[in-house]
């Protein structure tokens, strides 16, 4: 039976490293299975993000296959064998990608679009019996953003986190 686990925490709180440790433990138990790292990340635009991405890449072992899934992670599952393991990092990056691609302007509710994509992803994960760890940013315990786009992001992240927590067997 597929496990969906959600790791949530503040920015730079160690949530990715925690999720990676869980994947390493799974790998010790099932070394012959497929292990995938899904990221919706775009090319980093500044030095700080380039360093952060490089740190994440350096920690990834050779046995983990990285897939740049963009804004359509559900379609990437066709390339993943049944009974595999996926670390999806991160939900905030996925929402940001939707917002960066002007989907906010094109669609009435970007949150509903991201939610639909993630629910389709979870459904397919279950059908393929894939164990999945989502990494997501906790934005409700931080300062309320002063910008309209920042508040928009925070509210949508809160909604997405609630929906993903409902899909997960462990948060």
Task: Describe this structure as you would to a colleague.
The structure is a single chain. With about 170 residues, the chain is an alpha/beta fold. It contains 7 helices and 5 strands. A 5-stranded parallel β-sheet has the order 1-5-4-2-3, sandwiched between helices. α2 links the parallel β2 and β3. α4 crosses α7 (about 150-165). It starts with a strand and ends with a helix.
Please sum up the structure shown.
The chain is α/β, with parallel strands linked by helices and 171 residues long. Helix content is 49%, strand content 16%.
User: Would you tell me the structural class of the helices and strands?
Assistant: alpha/beta
Spatial order of strands in the largest sheet: 1-5-4-2-3
Q: How much of the residues is beta strand, in percent?
A: 15-25%
Low-confidence stretches: none
Global Rg:
16 Å
Query: What is the residue-averaged pLDDT?
Result: 87
What is the number of strand segments? Answer: 5
Order of helices and strands: EHEHEHEHHHEH
């Amino acid at each position: 039976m597929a496990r969906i686990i959600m790791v949530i925490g503040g920015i730079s709180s160690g949530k990715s490293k925690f999720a990676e440790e869980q994947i390493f433990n799974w790998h010790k138990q099932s070394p012959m299975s497929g292990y995938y790292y899904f990221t919706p990340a775009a090319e980093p635009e500044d030095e700080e993000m380039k360093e952060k991405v490089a740190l994440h890449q350096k920690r990834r072992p050779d046995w983990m296959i990285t897939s740049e899934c963009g804004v359509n992670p559900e379609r990437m599952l066709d390339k993943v064998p049944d009974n595999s393991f996926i670390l999806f990092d991160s939900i905030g990056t996925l929402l940001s990608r939707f917002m960066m691609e002007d989907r906010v302007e094109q669609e009435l509710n970007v949150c509903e679009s991201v939610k639909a994509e993630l629910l389709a992803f979870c459904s397919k994960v279950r059908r393929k019996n894939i164990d999945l760890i989502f990494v997501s940013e906790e934005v409700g315990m931080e300062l309320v953003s002063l910008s309209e786009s920042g508040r928009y992001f925070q509210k949508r992240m809160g909604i997405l986190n609630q929906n993903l927590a409902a899909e997960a067997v462990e948060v």
